[in-house]
Amino acid sequence: MSKPLLSVRGARFQHxxxxxxxxxxxxHQPGIALGxxxxxxxxxxxxxxxxxxxxxxxxxxxxxxxxxxxxxxxLDLGLSLPYRDAGxxxxxxxxSPPDARSLWRLVDQTCAADPHFAxxxxxxxxxxxxxxxxxxxxxxxxxxxxGASHRRGRFRVTExxxxxxxxxxxxxxxxxxxxQVGKSSLTGMRLLxxxxxxxxxxxxxxxxxxxxxxxxxxxxxxxAAVAASRSAGRSKIRDAAALNTALSVLGSPPCKLAGPIDDxxxxxxxxxxxxxxxxxxxxxxxxxxxxxxxxxxxxxxxGAA
Length: 305
Known about the structure:
Elements: H1 6-9, E1 15-20, E2 28-29, E3 33-38, E4 44-46, E5 54-55, H2 56-66, E6 71-76, H3 100-110, H4 120-123, E7 133-134, E8 138-139, H5 157-164, H6 182-195, E9 200-201, E10 215-218, H7 221-227, H8 240-249, H9 263-278, H10 282-285, H11 292-297
Protein name: DUF429 domain-containing protein
Organism: Novosphingobium kalidii
């Protein structure tokens, strides 16, 4: 398969939106931040209408009704769960879905009664819970299936690539600890299911994004921080001056903020600038380990090559 022209990737995207997501309980989330930049300007924060903090529903509404055309959207969450290591998301469970979109549907339907896109009903499900590590020392009997030497749970192929890039990923089946991304991923799957086919999700909807329209990719904000000369261990930025230093490494104009800044906002702003810088990098759209089977089941993290 030949690689597409770079213009299909970079020049056609006119806006770059990074969404720092949250899986926490409640409606309005201080952990959700949306950073956006144009093809040339400084990154800036988007604010929800009439609220101090974004809700997950408000983010969905924005993506459906207000997203500018030809935007590259980065979601800081896992688009899917490990599949390749065991040949299934939930080996041994008859309801285990065959692909990522079916997984999104299963999570959303199971959690239909959970407010604010929460996913409690799924992780507490009598069968599904066996695959997760939950609070209170509740580690499911099937949390470790792949025989990995670490204690961070099952990995997708892309998480192994993240680790090689200098990051320290955790399994999306892990729901415990400051570094866990499982809750964010599951709540994000509910949003992705509600998006339906309104936006193309790479690479789950295809390894070649369309030549027109907006595209959603999975991001890992630590990758952007490492690219901005910060180590994975000190990827979090909580000061506008430090953020502007990192932005300058990425060739971006400084943001118009001063003083303390929460790390969620900093992650979104820095990663928006990183998306703009790397949207035309053909290698990131064609990681060597990405196959059609991995694309439709596990997805991939943009930037993990």
